[in-house]
Amino acid sequence: MSRATERPIPPLVVSDTDDPAVVAAAGTEDYTLHATPLSWRMGRLSLASVWWGLASAMFWLILGALVALTVGTVDAIIGMVLAAVVYGAINAVFARHAARTGLTSNLFSRALFGSSGSLIAPILVAVTAIYFACFEGSVIAIALQEYLGGPVQLWYAVVVLYSVPLIFGALRTFLDRFNGILFPIYLAGMIAAVVWTGAAYGYGGGWLTQRPSELAVSGPGWWWAFTTYMADFVLMMATWDFARFARTSRRDRRFHSMVTFGPVFYFFTIVVNGVVGIFVALTIPTSGALSETSGVLGIVALMGLTGLLFVWVSQTRINTTNFYLAVTNLEGFLSRLSRVRLSRVVWGVVVGVIVFLIMLSNVFDFVLVALRYQAVLTVTWTACALVFLVLGRRLGGEAAIEWRPGRVPRFDAVGVAAWGVGTLVGFALLAFESAASWTGTWALPISFLVSTAIQATGMAARRSAQAVLARPHDPRDEVEDPWSSHVRCHVCGRSYVAVEMDRDPSAGHQAICAEHAQVNPEFSRAARAEAAGAG
């Protein structure tokens, strides 16, 4: 068809206010499959209140103690400080870009790996969040059983039954208030645990000088401690899912970069919790080897009802985050495979059932093995994302990260290669850990460096941050402000901010939202054909 006979491009149906139907849906869905509009952003303290729920997990206390038992307290603290610095620096970068783009880790991954190449990102976060929901939920159940008696399976069910409804509402309308109320109780409980432990067993400095008679790890003890904390790099992906709710003012950006997602948060989460955990766990006598279970039982036995309340508050706060991440990312993953849309309530029930069944399998038996392989995937994802953002700024890619399904390739060769090769190297090193103990210490850093090198080399070679499909008729260019203008989608009839909208070549170039563009095969084929013709 010649240009003279092409059908005219239909005008966009634009409004300057939020679509009431979209806002109503966001009350439970939180724009999981869309760019988060500026009108749905949260205040600084509200967002910090939600995210800081992660800081209260008993996991951080007991992990600090376990690391100290392995390499000694001094080396453990050095490793914690180094981890807090690295976590804080990387997440400060991620938080700024998530706020600017309004994207989840799922949507942002399209810019890294392409519309199909990014498929693994949401399921990775969902599976990890489900696993930690099981892990932290089991801690509550064991504490309840210790204090109240009864079969632990009963308490597993109780934990799931009260946890699931907590994430039915929107993040910005419930979870910030809920976690805000519980945080002072958690702080009081942690202080009480330290005071109670010292009063009962003394404040001697033996825990500070504790060191194993023989170092059973490869490399310096402080380095092993640091790489142990690398195993929780899934927090880098989770940062995107929460920082997208941040407002974009300079004051908000600074606050979130330093406090909410940056060094202040990780100093408290890793260092303060870790040191408290070392003191409490190494001071309270426990039967058998130290574990998260024995540490919790020791606290409940020492502090009684107060200890139980402390454990319940700490684990409930973090489990609101775990369940929220599991539900939103599972929804994002399955929406890529099917056009079926389920409500937040249904997804919550599905996740609750999965969590309960895994709890029955005794999660503590295989947590460490599963997390080590999961860690490789999150570490290499972090490497790709960090290089993409930092190097992309020099290559002119910072202003407009392209993530819309019809304007990125199915697979970005650079990103897929960087993530894939780095992951394979990490898996291979872990597989040979029994034959060469050094691989356990170096698997994650080496896989991070491999992905970093490939991502940087590939971007520099093509001289661009990402591969983009060059297509005409961009709704972003047709409105005065793509963040304040709302455009109606011809598929669902709802209006979303123009920054996520595209033109659908398979439907006369009518506007289409990001959610339906991702799952519409006719749109996908037509968009690629249009890009090939334009090229």
UniProtKB/TrEMBL annotation:
<feature type="transmembrane region" description="Helical">
    <location>
        <begin position="411"/>
        <end position="430"/>
    </location>
</feature>
<feature type="transmembrane region" description="Helical">
    <location>
        <begin position="153"/>
        <end position="171"/>
    </location>
</feature>
<feature type="transmembrane region" description="Helical">
    <location>
        <begin position="264"/>
        <end position="284"/>
    </location>
</feature>
<feature type="transmembrane region" description="Helical">
    <location>
        <begin position="223"/>
        <end position="243"/>
    </location>
</feature>
<keyword id="KW-0472">Membrane</keyword>
<feature type="transmembrane region" description="Helical">
    <location>
        <begin position="50"/>
        <end position="71"/>
    </location>
</feature>
<protein>
    <recommendedName>
        <fullName>Purine-cytosine permease-like protein</fullName>
    </recommendedName>
</protein>
<feature type="transmembrane region" description="Helical">
    <location>
        <begin position="296"/>
        <end position="313"/>
    </location>
</feature>
<dbReference type="InterPro" id="IPR030191">
    <property type="entry name" value="CodB"/>
</dbReference>
<feature type="transmembrane region" description="Helical">
    <location>
        <begin position="442"/>
        <end position="461"/>
    </location>
</feature>
<keyword id="KW-0812">Transmembrane</keyword>
<feature type="transmembrane region" description="Helical">
    <location>
        <begin position="345"/>
        <end position="364"/>
    </location>
</feature>
<feature type="transmembrane region" description="Helical">
    <location>
        <begin position="183"/>
        <end position="203"/>
    </location>
</feature>
<feature type="transmembrane region" description="Helical">
    <location>
        <begin position="77"/>
        <end position="99"/>
    </location>
</feature>
<keyword id="KW-1133">Transmembrane helix</keyword>
<feature type="transmembrane region" description="Helical">
    <location>
        <begin position="370"/>
        <end position="391"/>
    </location>
</feature>
<feature type="transmembrane region" description="Helical">
    <location>
        <begin position="111"/>
        <end position="133"/>
    </location>
</feature>
